[in-house]
Each structure stands twice: as C-alpha cells, then as structure tokens.
Specification:
single chain; alpha+beta; Aminoglycoside 3'-phosphotransferase, Chain: A, domain 2; five-stranded antiparallel beta sheet; three-stranded antiparallel beta sheet; 10 helices; 45% helix; globular; Kinase-like_dom_sf; kinase; Aminoglycoside_PTrfase; kinase activity
C-alpha cells in the first residue's frame, strides 16, 4: 500500500501505512498535547470514541485507521455527534499534562485583518467580537478544540470516531460546535446546531450559547487566516478572498446577537 498523505492544515505529516500487515495512520511530528492525549486521556473520556493507539515513539504516533469518512451534512443531523461532544464537555477527567491553551488576542486580529484587507466597519466588528472572546475561554470545560468534518469517521461497524486531538484543552462547548456550521452560516443554522446540542447538555443557556457560537465562528476566521498565511499555504488566497467577500454581510446579519 502506498503512503497516502492525509495532512490538511496541521503541521504534522499524516499518512496511511501498514503496521504488522494492518492498515494504520502514521502521524509524524505530532504535538506534545496530542501524544499525551492518546497516552493518558483517551481512555478516561467515557462516551467518546477515539482511534486506538497502536504505538507511540516520541512525536510519532501509530493510530487505528478509521476507514469511512463522514460528510458535514451527516454530522449536522446525527445525534451521536452531539452526544460525543457533550460527553467531552461534561467529563470530570482533568488532564495531568499540559493541554492546548486557547486564546484570541488583539494581535491575532490585527494580523488577520492586515491579510484580509477588510473595510473599516468590518474591522471594527471583528475587534469588538474579539473584545468579547473571554466568553469562549473562561471555562473549566474540556473540549476537542478541532471538531471539523475532516476529523470524524466511522469504523466499519458504524461507530462514530473523533480524531486529531492536538487542540485538546479547555473552553466553551461553542468552540466544538462552530465547525459543524456550514461556511459562515445563518442565525437559523446556529439555532439548529444549538438546539440539537441542548438535548445532551444544558450547562449554558440557549441564547448565551448562540452568542458564543458566533464568537467562535469569528475566531475560526482569524485562526485560519493566520495559519494559512503563516505557513505560506497555497490555499491562502482562495480562503482570504472568500472571507473578504462573506464577512461584511455575515457580521451585519449576526450583530444583533452580540
């Protein structure tokens, strides 16, 4: 079997290979958080399916291969997804290792705005949302930190599995819900995601969770822009042009919730 590069936006090199004649994922350059997650945390997260750790050698991981992809439309309408995320968020497990520290600084915003070349009114909206972003990070709640559609799959027996845990840390459940909204989404899209999630966890009131979801979606724009530009990703200009086109209308449509 030839190695198939599965890397997306991460810095690690991910490939499909074989170990003892069995297909597996070989992740080279895995971060300390993700290595520690598979070694120490995964078995403590009740109700959450993660790939089995087959071997770890420094920053190299050999993980169970999850063969079946799951599209975003399926994730948005599958109660198992929201049950999985709620199980992470409600877990009483506390890591004994250093986890990812999530934050959104004004410097991050300034860098992204410089790349995006947005109109002043749009810049001001993003800076205002950043000023409200402590609502995302002042939480004693475990989160996956990266629940986008490329990080979910199904085993051949149908079990849903969440992988890619390099952003495992603490934060609002909204950080894990935001990637489930297609593109930038409408207010109705946010309400639908929140309503499904609240069936499994009601720790945060509905209106507050919608607000935090909008903040989290805005933060994703900043993070993605800075990662793509910082790594000279060939996709950078495509994303930047799309954000530049979408953000003014989207921000105007959600500002009443903030």
């Amino acid at each position: 079997m030839s190695n198939q590069d599965l890397s997306q936006m991460g810095a690690a090199q991910v490939s499909l290979t074989q170990r003892n004649g069995i297909p597996c994922i070989h992740k080279q350059g895995a971060g300390e958080v993700e290595v520690a997650f598979y070694q120490h945390a995964a078995q403590h997260l009740d109700g959450v399916n993660t790939p089995r750790l087959l071997a770890a050698d420094g920053c190299e991981l050999y993980l169970e291969y999850i063969p079946n992809s799951v599209c975003l439309t399926e994730l948005q309408t599958t109660s198992d997804v929201f049950q999985h995320l709620a199980s992470i968020h409600c877990s009483r497990y506390r890591p004994t290792f250093e986890v990812k520290r999530h934050q959104w600084s004004l410097d991050d915003t300034t860098s992204a705005i410089s790349s995006l070349q947005l109109a002043q009114v749009t810049q001001d909206s993003l800076k205002y949302i950043q000023s409200q972003s402590d609502a995302l990070f002042n939480h004693d709640t475990l989160i996956s930190g990266d629940s986008n559609e490329g990080n979910w799959g199904r085993r051949d027996n149908g079990q849903l599995v969440l992988f890619d845990w390099e952003r495992f840390g603490f934060g609002s459940p909204a950080i894990d819900l935001a990637p489930l909204v297609s593109q930038m989404g409408t207010l109705k899209d946010y309400e639908l995601i929140v309503e499904q999630y609240l069936c499994h966890n009601t720790l945060i009131p509905r209106e507050e969770l919608i607000k935090q979801l909008i903040i989290a979606k805005s933060w994703i724009v900043i993070e993605v822009t800075n990662i793509l530009v910082g790594r000279n990703n060939p996709q950078a200009s495509k994303y930047i042009n799309w954000f530049r086109e979408q953000l003014p209308t989207w921000l105007a449509s959600v500002e009443g919730q903030l």
